[in-house]
Amino acid sequence: LHTGTLPTFRGVKSEFWSLLAQADGLTHAGWTLHEMMPTLDAGPIVLQGDLPLGAAADQAHLRALLLQDAMAPIAALLQRLRTDK
Question: Rounded distance, CA 74 to CA 49, Å?
Answer without folding.
Answer: 10
